[in-house]
Amino acid sequence: MTTVSIGATARRLAAASMAALLAGCAVGPDYRTPSLSLPARWGAEPKATKPAQPQLVEWWRNLNDPLLNALIAEAVAGNLDVATAKAAIREARASRREAAGGLFPTLDGLGAGDRTKTAATQTGTGKSALASTFQAGFDASWELDLFGATRREVEAATYGVDAAEEDLRSTLLTLIGDVAQNYVEARGYQARIALARRTAASQRETASLTQQKLEAGSASGVDVANARGLAASTEAEIPTLETSFAQSVHRLGVLTGRAPSALGPRLAAARSIPAPKGMPAAGVPADVLRARPDVRLAERQLAQYTAKIGQAEAARYPSVSLTGSISTTSAKIGDLAKRSTIGWSYGPSVNVPLFERGSLVAAVDVARAQRDQYFVAFKASVLTALEDVENALVALRKERERTAKLGASASAYRDSARLSRELYRAGSSAFLDVLDAERSLYDAEDALLASRVLAATNYVALQKALGGGWGKPVEVSTPEVVDVATGPRLAARAR
């Protein structure tokens, strides 16, 4: 029968209670998501309109362009900025595993052996002697996380993983928007090049007609010169537009992770300018906090640096480590476990920071100041996101109105140019009327195409501002560089 005194039991309970208390102890502030005051609706939205939930996942499919869909998928797979963001996630995850390792004990094994020869002059027997000694053992240590320094480090590293993942989403959002914008602009340049060529051809026909009238004596040399000058002026626009088109194609090539000119053949055939149907829903401002990855990134960084305050604060408190070792020594390897000398030791060690010249307190102040900077950055990211949406809403709505007016203008100038040519052929109108009508028609049609491009890019900007992006999982575990033959080997010369 085993008996335990009441005093011993009380001491054990007290020790267990203290250990449980210390195990759950942590210093520094606990993170809470900031509460921000947001407007109930967008200022650019009509008050009579009921806010509808925006469709943000794969929003570019509303532009109804299969080639654009394919280019975006290829960019997500091959873009170098995305590859960098994936590597950052792997780094953050590895850093978290590294930090978590500090919560567990460490165990090191050791082994040693030596053979000693004693000279004959020292043995007293006239013969030299050989002696062998073998030693094996283990060293263990465990730093108790009494005040939560390691747990705060793991917490900060966990928030760092979240931030890296949000950075990848933000990179994807920017990438998709850039691909869509450059694709729309490329199609716009193609349309404007085609317009300039058609217009120049028409103006050349007018110049030929004027030359015929000159030969018939019903037109002047000034009229012929003006007609040819107008056609040449229109043709002069084409090289500039072709340069801009090539630059858009080159940008798309780089965005997809290819050589700049790699997409030239696929984009050579002209297609219509992508255009969404109707005005997209924008939801409510609170949706931005949930959808915008840059806002979520700023919030995760705020959480990360809040946890680092506790990590710095814990350094001001005592640290306790438990260490132990066991070793065995024998003259033969086979006797290490049976006929050998065994030694062991264990015990705690306490490190108390007594005089650090205020450096530990200053480290806490540094951590708090960094947290404040990220808090301000989070608030700024929210305001920037709200501003982006408001600006994009106004720009898209007003550009759609402008496109409609420019369409009516181009239609009117088209009728005017047609009638002017007919009257001029019949000799009932002066050539200056034809010249002015053709110039006005080209300007109106070119402005209409540019407005359609701007309306589409404003649609892209709105979807980016709302946080729309890639909705499918992205595989991040595969490294960009796969190392081989990393085990022990003779070092090779650097090349």
Task: Report what the structure shows.
It is a single chain. The chain is an alpha+beta fold and 495 residues long. Helices cover 59% and strands 11% of the residues. The protein has helices spanning 6-23, 66-78, 80-100, 120-123, 149-216, 221-235, 237-255, 264-267, 286-291, 293-314, 359-426, 431-466, and strands spanning 106-118, 129-144, 319-330, 341-351. A 4-stranded antiparallel sheet has the order 1-2-3-4. The model is unreliable at 1-22 (pLDDT under 50).
A few lines on this structure:
With 495 residues, the chain is of the alpha+beta class. The protein is 59% helix and 11% strand. 34% of the residues are buried.
Bulk shape:
elongated
The portion of residues forming beta strands comes to: 5-15%
Mean of residue pLDDT values: 87
How many DSSP E strands? 4
- Element pattern in H and E: HHHEHEHHHHHHEEHH
Structural class: alpha+beta
Main beta sheet: strand number and arrangement?
Answer: 4 strands, antiparallel
For the termini, the CA-CA separation is 76 Å
Low-confidence blocks of residues = 1-22
Helical content stands at: 55-70%
Number of helices: 12
List the helices and strands and how they pair.
Layout: H1 6-23, H2 66-78, H3 80-100, E1 106-118, H4 120-123, E2 129-144, H5 149-216, H6 221-235, H7 237-255, H8 264-267, H9 286-291, H10 293-314, E3 319-330, E4 341-351, H11 359-426, H12 431-466
Antiparallel strand pairs: 1-2, 2-3, 3-4
